[in-house]
Amino acid sequence: MSEQVHVVWHDHQVSREDHEKLNGHKGCVVWFTGLSACGKSTVANLVDHKLHAAGKHSFVLDGDNVRMGLNAAPGLLKERHGEEFAKRFGLGFSAQDREENIRRIGAVANLFAQAGLITLTAFISPYRRDRDHVRAAMKDGDFVEIFVDAPLEVCEARDPKGLYKKARAGELKGFTGIDDPYEAPTKPELVLDAGQKDAETLADEVIAYLKKSGKLG
Ligand SMILES: Nc1ncnc2c1ncn2[C@@H]1O[C@H](COP(=O)(O)OP(=O)(O)O)[C@@H](O)[C@H]1O
Ligand SMILES: [Mg+2]
Prior knowledge:
By secondary structure, this protein is α/β, with parallel strands linked by helices. The protein contains ten helices and five strands. 46% of the residues lie in helices and 12% in strands. Helix 2 packs across helix 10 (199-212), helix 4 (74-81) runs antiparallel to helix 5 and helix 6 (95-114) runs parallel beside helix 7.
């Protein structure tokens, strides 16, 4: 018998509905996906700012912040807990580690939704299957997938961290869009034209979608 069998979902005394009632809006996960430098973090943070200003409870889960703790890279864990620990629990950038990275983020975001929060996640999350697994683990309607669609040439020209340059030079292996695939969503709730429109306009489009779909109360 697996350990899994003994794990039972615990209903909280304060229910999700109680949290949502107090917050005055629904909990959900707004999942931004797209190439590096397409604008995920920028738009997610703008939406967060606008929601906060409107009295909504939101929170951004973003790449490096998550990889510093919950999904720490092996290098970081080695410094803190030694080599053996880093090997067992560290997450790098292989397809398998990316899958686990996204699974954990999805699980945390799902818990946040139970707390009535609007969670905005800003990860490349390049593999369709991994995103679909996150969606499948959530209640219908909780997962709002937003494709931040900017052409590779545009992202590469922006390259604020110089990552594309390094990838082109062969100094970074397995970089999404260069030598690792990006699989665009087939049925996202929303597509943002991030190569043409400014981030402010895109954030307003996200807010408009959340309003229209009844998430904001
Ligand atoms: N819609 C946009 N139009 C023009 N530049 C943008 C837009 N969105 C983001 N940027 C700029 O592109 C760069 C990458 O944005 P960022 O949000 O960090 O991307 P990601 O989180 O997807 O890697 C930043 O310098 C940002 O200011
Ligand atoms: Mg980012």
